[in-house]
Amino acid sequence: MRALLLRQKQVFLFIVAGGLSAVVEIGSFKLFSIYLPQMLPQEQNFYGIHYPFSNILSTTCGILFNYFLSIWFVFERGKHSKKREFLYFMVVSFISTILSLSFFQVFYSYIFKDNINLIFYTLSPEMISKIAAILLVSILNYSVKKKIIFNG
């Protein structure tokens, strides 16, 4: 029973940490997607890839924020050294970034074409695509981080 409660607590903390990291990632994506196209006009469509640098930079911000939340609040230290743990985290995050960018491109190019009006805020297709990509990848992230990285 205790193990089940601890596991539920860990899942809850992972969701909170992921939510906060998503806020950092989405917020920084919004900023980057507004200001980078002013400096790099091809940012909106870079050889058919929409907002590549905004995505990469915002995902990096979210990953680093999530790493610190994960080691402070969510997972116990695993059997790996801190350096190896960080390396594994970054490798998994790199793969997750590729997946997230791929999902974003599919969502933005083919699925989300219109704004969603939430009365107090309107979500653009790029923001909806970013949120959907984050949600999909976060499920994979928890499993991999729990089983491989923080497997103490």
Automatic annotation (TrEMBL):
<keyword id="KW-0812">Transmembrane</keyword>
<feature type="transmembrane region" description="Helical">
    <location>
        <begin position="87"/>
        <end position="107"/>
    </location>
</feature>
<feature type="transmembrane region" description="Helical">
    <location>
        <begin position="127"/>
        <end position="144"/>
    </location>
</feature>
<protein>
    <submittedName>
        <fullName>Flippase GtrA (Transmembrane translocase of bactoprenol-linked glucose)</fullName>
    </submittedName>
</protein>
<feature type="domain" description="GtrA/DPMS transmembrane">
    <location>
        <begin position="14"/>
        <end position="150"/>
    </location>
</feature>
<keyword id="KW-0472">Membrane</keyword>
<feature type="transmembrane region" description="Helical">
    <location>
        <begin position="56"/>
        <end position="75"/>
    </location>
</feature>
<feature type="transmembrane region" description="Helical">
    <location>
        <begin position="12"/>
        <end position="36"/>
    </location>
</feature>
<keyword id="KW-1133">Transmembrane helix</keyword>
<dbReference type="Pfam" id="PF04138">
    <property type="entry name" value="GtrA_DPMS_TM"/>
</dbReference>
<dbReference type="InterPro" id="IPR007267">
    <property type="entry name" value="GtrA_DPMS_TM"/>
</dbReference>
